[in-house]
Design brief:
alpha+beta; six-stranded mixed β-sheet; four-stranded mixed β-sheet; 4 helices; about 25% helix; globular
């Protein structure tokens, strides 16, 4: 839950340390699922502010065809590369990654979008800005292709 995560980051004095490590020291960071969402300015899940590292906001995932598209969005889906990145080196476009989420990232800033995914609508499923990387999907559950992404991140 977004609001609980923000509360915990403050309660355990991690908020300022994260901002220093990422924004001042420029350490690479990879946010996975909720970790990516926390990088946004705001979330509807708890109606609170996030870290604000990226331009986007987090909104409830809604679909019109609820017979074909279920929420939470759970399972394998393709991701489509929107720009080049060291994070996706040796990962083919349209690779399959594992998703499980009820909220999604939304932004007008297309420069931050690394991947998009279509699940009734097309939404940003990975973001990147400088040393900041976020993925809505779960590379740790995505077999060899996910392992390649984690290796790429480690080797940044």
């Amino acid at each position: 839950h977004f609001a609980k995560a923000v509360e915990n980051l403050h309660q355990y004095n991690i908020w300022d340390a994260l901002n220093t490590a990422v924004l001042v020291n420029k350490n690479p960071i990879l946010g996975i699922c909720l970790g990516m969402q926390l990088m946004a300015k705001y979330s509807e899940e708890g109606n609170c502010e996030g870290l604000g590292w990226m331009d986007g906001k987090v909104i409830a995932f809604k679909v019109d065809d609820n017979l074909r598209f279920k929420i939470p969005h759970t399972g394998w889906n393709q991701v489509y590369q929107q720009k080049n990145s060291k994070l996706v080196q040796d990962i083919p476009d349209a690779s399959m990654f594992y998703f499980v989420h009820s909220y999604r990232y939304a932004t007008e800033n297309t420069d931050e979008i690394l991947h998009t995914t279509n699940y009734e609508i097309t939404f940003p499923s990975a973001i990147e800005k400088n040393n900041i990387f976020g993925v809505q999907y779960h590379p740790e559950k995505s077999h060899d292709i996910g392992l390649q992404m984690i290796k790429n991140f480690i080797n940044l």
